[in-house]
């Protein structure tokens, strides 16, 4: 897919993320908008996975550690044909399988997450299995920057390099915010790159909204043979909707009707430029 | 759906708000009070606390195991430490820190589990705490308290500040009406509160299930003339055995209701005592069954599993009819 096509898809994804969050009256808006361009490139350009091979032991795996931004993942999975998009009208509603965090009751979801700090260990295990069985699939996981203080992440990071898991790629959605404030104010994890390097990882930085740069970065995997790869994706929380960008309250804010209209207008403008 | 009336909603606050308000009051005169959070100050309604008393709040970041371990270390120096985090993560992620650093070493941390039970509704099982009574009951040296209304919450927080041993308190975030207007109401850890009396049935609730239990008792009386005793068993451990024995002695049927798995919680704690002490009352445990919990809001989940006026009344009625 060209960068132009990817960009158009992302506008559409953003529109749908907002639509279903408004419909559900709940959702993690800011973090869905910060990670959706990365998911777009992963599912449309990188991952060897789709509804046709989802049962295959050879498929690539994506495990979303920052489970709360499931709306972005649901929208991308629907677009890939894992389930009818109309199902998302039931998001968070009584009796629905589409809850506010990834669940394996939904086709295309690899693991149930939502409690932060689980994705990396799960991914290490899944990647290790490929090494043990001599299989060529790869494992991708996405973490929030606020999620990093969970100790399990560092336990997973240690073991990944111990087992030389170069089939593992972790991505940090480095949007600089969590619930209570800026990540540097809540519990400063900088410099993330040097910490992971010290743990035996090969690290690259990328603009998480630059489709060309994302494609190039993922094309270079593994960054070093014999080492796990970390992509620090620099992103903007609430990206694409001006009044949401870098605003704490949009972590799980739901747009009111006026705000929703305004957001749709901004997305229509963005789309017009891409024609 | 017989919900709490609008009038009641306006009059009463969420136990969560009462918790944060009480803590502010205490902290203004007691500088040894320290609140420790894990990116949870917003969910804990503690943003104003942090603004007023910045020196009495410690932020840990999203790291609940660290939260509890650090809280234990802080408490060991004589500080009155309230460790505040969603009940689901606080009691599952940090279970060993609770068991070892808090309970075993007897560091008097006040573990505050917010948005407990299924308060987080449609966010799913990662965010539900339906295991905490079961897990924590098996840990020695831990008081477990589940206040039902604003009165019980305020008392529990004040008492906790003075308690020199580990304690776990959990509550939800929805407005809760007062259980009774009784001006002589008392609250003591380990002593269940009888909030309504009757000779035909006993309903023992805890936390946010006590109010629907009272509604069920009213319904049973109005529709069938069945009169029920309703208990707020706010302390799950140590359980009020004296009250249980007294209530069971007449042979009346007993229903327990909790926002927890039917395994290992209030109901099984009561059953264990009664069974081992020769009581043979008809007995029914109401709670969340052992299954993939249905999606919905807290109130929808309550209704789905019968933890509602109608559901509790129906269970009570069946038990009374079976026993008669
Ligand atoms: C173990 C655990 N603790 C707390 C939470 C509650 N929580 C959900 S999202 C969030 C903030 C996450 O921030 P970040 O990882 O930076 O995500 P993003 O900015 O991408 O939304 C918190 C504290 C949780 N889901 N899991
Ligand atoms: Mg973030």
TrEMBL record, chain A:
Keyword terms of this UniProt record: Thiamine pyrophosphate
InterPro entries linked: THDP-binding, Transketolase_N
Keyword Nucleus: no
Plastid recorded as keyword: no
One Pfam entry name: Transketolase_N
Domain Transketolase N-terminal: 19-255
Family from the record: Belongs to the transketolase family.
Name of this chain's protein: Transketolase
TrEMBL record, chain B:
Bilayer-spanning residue ranges: none
InterPro entries in alphabetical order: PDH/Transketolase, THDP-binding, Transketo_C/PFOR_II, Transketolase-like_Pyr-bd, Transketolase_C
Pfam families, per database record: Transket_pyr (PF02779), Transketolase_C (PF02780)
Transketolase-like pyrimidine-binding domain: residues covered: 13-178
Keywords: Thiamine pyrophosphate
UniProt cofactor(s): thiamine diphosphate
Keyword Transmembrane helix on entry: no
Keyword Repeat: no
Family per record: Belongs to the transketolase family.
PANTHER family: PYRUVATE DEHYDROGENASE E1 COMPONENT (PTHR43825), TRANSKETOLASE-LIKE PYRIMIDINE-BINDING DOMAIN-CONTAINING PROTEIN (PTHR43825:SF1)
Name of the protein in question: Transketolase family protein
Protein's organism: Larkinella humicola
